[in-house]
Structures are given as structure tokens and as C-alpha cells.
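Worked example 3 (structure in, sequence out).
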């Protein structure tokens, strides 16, 4: 399998992760709401039923997934296809945008009622519609990566263009240095519609932040739905900038020497990187 990737620049691109905001922003914050009697989330391998969890906290998570969907539509990463998801912390359940195709839903108007809850076998345990056809991309990444709290699958044009060539998608923009370890390519254009293909994507992703699927789209992961959403948008923006720059001349990637131990050269933390952009875009979609 072709593991093409951009230039690696950072040894640990997620310094500052410990500073995630309180009040439910981040995996541990949501887990504390879901299990108020516990300070840390329970094992995600525990068998779960919806009656076991704080429905108010799950409602908050569904609202965040709806907001993520509206942001991704606004930024042209998804149209009728594409789906964000979030692990319900301390469980083996996943909240994901449902299969809205039958309703011809305008995803710019996504609301929490369009979000379903499924288990890691892809079976819906709560919701009024089916899970998306490519749900196994989500479930198998969650199985493989205990550090992942959210997954975005989208079909942005500029990232897809890179997936079809041998040109590496490299970090050329300072807001895309989270992908400094490179963006591999899953060398198949098939639908990820069964567990075996989901496992193949998870294996190709490895421990990285995102992966391109040849002639298909991208999949980006994060600790939270906010982080994954912001990172997916910025990866597509960086791809567009790289294509624009290549038309002007040789493209310079961001060099390791230009970076500090923090996320960006000005010391921007992951919390600021995530929530400054998330809050702004969420406000824009609410207008």
C-alpha cells in the first residue's frame, strides 16, 4: 500500500493538549458529565446500553456533531456525503451523523435529531435513522486508537487532488503543522463499507492525524470533535494553498527550525488553536 506522506517536521505536534478547557470541552470533560460519579472514564471495551448514561451529556455531544456538520458544509468539505463522529467517553459507543440521503437533508441545517448512536459493530442503538454506509471507517479507527475521540470523513476537492498524484501534501501553512508528520494515502478508491476495509484504513492511518483516500476523500482524527473539525478544515485549506503556490514556483515547506516546542511559532496552544476557530465558525453557522 502506498504510504506517501509530506515532510515530517514535529516530533510531538500535540503539546499543550493537557490544557483543554473545562466545561465539557475535551474527552475527559465530557466523560465527567456522562459518569458524574467517576473522575475518569470507564474502559471503552465495557458493554454499554443507552440507559446507563447521562442523556443530557449525550445531547450536548449530539449538538456538537450537528455544529461540526454545519461547519464542514460551510467550508465545502462535505455536501450530501461525509460525516463526523465522536466517541462517547468511557463507553464503546459512538455518536455519528446519520444516513440522511433518503431524506435529501440539507446538511447546512443539521440538528441533533440527525445524529445517531452506534456501537463498535456499527449497529444503531439510539436514533431515528441508519448509521452512514462508511461507518466502519469510524468504528475501526476507534478500535485501533484509544487516543482518538473524534473522526471526520469528508470529500474536499483539493485534498482529493493530492490523493490522485505522487505529490505529497506537505505542511506549508502555519495552521497546518499538526500534520507535520505527514499525511499518508490509502491507495484505494473503494467505499469503506465493511469492517475489513475499515481496519485497512485504520492501519494505513497508523498514529497520524489524518489520511487521504485515493480519489475519494480524507479522514482526520482528534481528541475531540472540535479539534478534528478544525484540523480537517485547515488541512483542506493548506492543500488549496499548496496548489496555488505550485503554480507560482517552487514551494517551501515549514522547516523544523522555524517551530518552537509549542504548536505554532507564537506559542499558540492546542486549546487556543481549536476553540478560537471552532467558536468563530460555530457563530458563523448560527447566523
Amino acid at each position: 500500500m502506498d504510504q506517501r506522506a509530506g515532510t515530517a517536521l514535529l516530533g510531538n505536534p500535540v503539546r499543550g493538549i493537557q490544557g483543554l478547557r473545562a466545561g465539557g470541552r475535551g474527552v475527559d470533560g465530557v466523560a465527567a458529565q456522562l459518569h458524574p460519579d467517576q473522575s475518569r472514564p470507564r474502559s471503552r471495551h465495557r458493554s454499554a446500553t443507552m440507559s446507563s448514561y447521562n442523556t443530557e451529556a449525550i445531547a450536548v455531544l449530539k449538538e456538537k456533531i450537528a455544529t461540526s456538520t454545519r461547519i464542514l458544509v460551510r467550508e465545502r468539505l462535505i455536501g450530501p456525503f461525509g460525516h463526523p463522529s465522536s466517541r462517547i467517553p468511557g463507553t464503546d459507543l459512538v455518536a455519528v451523523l446519520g444516513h440522511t440521503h433518503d431524506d435529501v437533508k440539507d446538511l447546512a441545517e443539521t440538528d441533533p435529531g440527525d445524529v445517531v448512536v452506534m456501537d463498535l459493530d456499527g449497529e444503531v442503538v439510539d436514533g431515528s435513522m441508519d448509521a452512514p454506509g462508511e461507518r466502519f471507517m469510524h468504528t475501526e479507527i476507534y478500535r485501533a486508537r484509544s487516543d482518538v475521540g473524534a473522526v471526520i470523513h469528508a470529500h474536499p476537492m483539493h485534498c482529493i487532488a493530492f490523493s490522485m498524484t505522487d505529490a505529497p501534501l506537505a505542511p506549508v501553512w502555519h495552521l497546518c503543522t499538526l500534520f507535520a508528520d505527514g499525511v499518508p494515502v490509502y491507495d484505494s478508491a473503494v467505499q469503506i463499507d465493511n469492517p475489513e476495509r475499515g481496519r485497512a484504513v485504520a492501519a494505513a492511518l497508523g498514529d497520524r492525524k489524518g489520511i487521504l483516500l485515493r480519489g475519494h476523500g480524507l479522514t482526520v482524527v482528534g481528541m475531540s470533535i472540535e479539534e478534528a473539525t478544525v484540523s480537517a478544515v485547515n488541512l483542506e485549506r493548506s492543500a488549496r494553498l499548496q496548489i496555488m503556490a505550485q503554480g507560482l514556483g517552487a514551494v517551501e515547506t515549514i522547516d523544523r527550525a522555524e517551530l518552537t516546542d509549542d504548536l505554532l511559532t507564537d506559542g499558540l496552544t492546542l486549546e487556543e488553536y481549536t476553540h478560537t476557530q471552532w467558536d468563530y465558525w460555530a457563530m458563523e453557522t448560527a447566523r
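Notes: The mean pLDDT is 81. Helices lie at 27-34, 55-74, 135-144, 157-163, 195-205, 225-246, 270-285.
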